[in-house]
Amino acid sequence: QALKFKVLIKNKKVGTLEQSLLRMDDDYRGEAGEVSDSDAPSDSEDTDDTFPIQRSRSPSKRKADRRSSPLPQKKAKVKKSKIALALSDLVVYTKSQKFVSFEYSLQHQAVFENNSIGESQARKFVRLSAREFISHTARFITRIYPKGSRMTSSNYNPQEFWNVGCQMVALNFQTPGTQMELQDGKFLDNGGCGYVLKPEFLRDRNTTFTPRNVGGHSKPMSLSIRLISGHQLPPSSMSKTNKADPKVQIEIYGVPEDQARKKSSVIKSNALCPKWNETFSFHIQVPELAMIRFCVEDEVSLASNEFLGQYTLPVTSLNTGYRNIPLISKDGIKLESASLFAHVWYY
After folding, report:
1. Which of 20, 35, 52, 82 is the S-S candidate for 89 at Cβ 3.0 to 4.6 Å?
2. In 49-181, at which residue ranges do the beta strands (DSSP E only) sit?
3. CA–CA separation, 322 vs 228, rounded Å?
4. Which positions fall inside the PI-PLC Y-box domain (predicted)?
5. What is the pLDDT of residue 291?
6. What is the spatial distance between Cα 178 and Cα 196, in angstroms, rounded to a whole number?
């Protein structure tokens, strides 16, 4: 509540908060301080930059390594970088701290320090130690970032990391697609302010919840959606007569047990006012984490479809009754007058 309307600067910091306060009255423009970061190799191949690290060796080099006798292990290099004091002093609640392990953070990390973890290492934690991961994210702000080998700026599914309470799931915003649609839809909740409160079971440090074992945290929802019609859907770019053969996919993203996808029938040559009158039912175990996506496609052939529009939002943001569902283009722009008409009901 106290941080409303404030901007939090996440960065490395020189010294302590007390030292920053002592510098408040000093004129230190242009000055910089050094921060050191252990450069020990991690288990993950992810790097928090644009380019991947080249780790491959030639076959002859690998053979030579096997023949050579083991050498004493070198000490971890200490990498030093300079931070402008003016920037450093803006960092209060979100000081970047190198991630070592969950145990290390539990013993040594302060609440205002937060970690960045690469997607490959984070995915391994989700699979092998989800409970410890959730306990960590209940204590510390945790950021996930795409691996450096994504040379085309592709994206991972952010849902798997929201499921374990990660607060900052970084994506390549320049790349449209389902992943960015989930990102935009997630933050439609709470007025699109950029902050969404996690469910209580992801804020409890002693929680027993994991995405694959929801246990007593399940509050099942039966959701029924009657897809009635479409209105002024975008025409297919492949059609000479500006028509389309539209169909609708309704998808649920959430914990593994809740993942679901259902498809409507195809309405031939009618993008202006197609009528479906089809009902789709979903049983959702953890609605607090679930997202629903309505995707309209043109069936070009049995093997390929053309994207026409979509709308994604949290399941808990659905209202019951007759609803007009707006459609958004691949580039995230609202398609004026294009919509779906549906009846939503759940208990």
Report:
1. 20
2. 78-84, 95-96, 113-118, 142-145, 168-169
3. 10
4. 87-203
5. 98
6. 20
Q: Is residue 75 part of a domain?
A: no
**pLDDT of 50:** 36
From first CA to last CA, the distance across the chain in angstroms is 32
- Closest by CA position to 187, among listed 211, 167, 202, 210: 167
| CA 71 – CA 246 distance, rounded (Å) | 65
pTM for the full predicted model: 0.85
Taking CA atoms, 229 is separated from 236, 273, 343, in Å, by 18, 7, 10
Q: Kind and range of the H or E element at 104?
A: helix 102-108
* Cβ-Cβ contacts under 8 Å for 109 (sequence gap 6 or more): 97, 115, 139, 140
168, 142 contact by CB (below 8 A): yes
Q: Is residue 59 part of a domain?
A: no
Of 20-34, 58-72, 302-316, give the range with the top mean pLDDT.
Answer: 302-316
Sort 214 into a burial class: Cβ within 10 Å, 0-12 / 13-18 / 19+.
buried
Give every CB contact of residue 47 below 8 A, 6+ residues apart in sequence: 53, 118, 147, 148
pLDDT value at 314 more than 70:
yes
Our CA dihedral for 84, 88, 89, 92, rounded to 10 degrees, sits at 170
Name the more confident of 347 and 77: 347
CATH number where 201 lies: 3.20.20.190
